[in-house]
Design goal:
42% helix, 6 helices, 6 strands
Length: 160
């Protein structure tokens, strides 16, 4: 599913063989992962004040989590937020993350786990195997989204 939020057109990225290469590389490495209901990629520290990036509107999270809840027909689920490694260095991002957690808690009956980034392989594998993945404004999120076989939410522009 794609909603129209700012990110460059992912079209050329999708025309590569990156999906197969990514899945093969992960299969060879056999990284651990935790099975999750929803994994939300929170990217902020290097993008919040960058032209063309910025922060996603709350409506994006409300729409994606509402859609997941409707599809899963579950009254309660867990959202795992994986924050980018720089969030701890940027006070603005810490505040936005706290507000996002409160927004999700006040809007949905769900449990929320906020966790630091782990190794790239473990995080990507966790994103790949979640029941649903909510990408941030991120090339990594686009690669993960393209490689998944499950529900994926990506913030793309109308050019996509």
């Amino acid at each position: 599913r794609a909603w129209e939020f700012p990110h460059g057109c992912p079209g050329p990225w999708m025309e590569t063989d990156m999906r197969g290469q990514l899945l093969q590389a992960i299969a060879r490495a056999q990284p651990a992962y935790d099975q999750r209901d929803v994994v939300l990629q929170f990217r902020c520290s290097d993008s919040w004040n960058r032209p063309g990036y910025g922060m996603l509107p709350w409506m994006y999270y409300k729409m994606t989590l509402s859609d997941f809840q409707r599809q899963s027909q579950s009254s309660r689920f867990t959202v795992t937020i994986i924050k980018d490694p720089g969030v701890e260095r940027v006070e603005f991002c810490q505040v936005v993350l706290g507000v996002l957690v409160r927004f999700i808690n006040s809007t949905f009956q769900c449990d929320i786990e906020v966790r630091a980034a782990r190794s790239l392989l473990v995080d990507v594998n966790t994103m790949l195997h979640a029941n649903a993945f909510i990408s941030g404004v991120s090339s990594l999120g686009m690669f993960v989204g393209a490689a998944r076989h499950r529900v994926t939410y990506m913030p793309v522009s109308v050019q996509a």
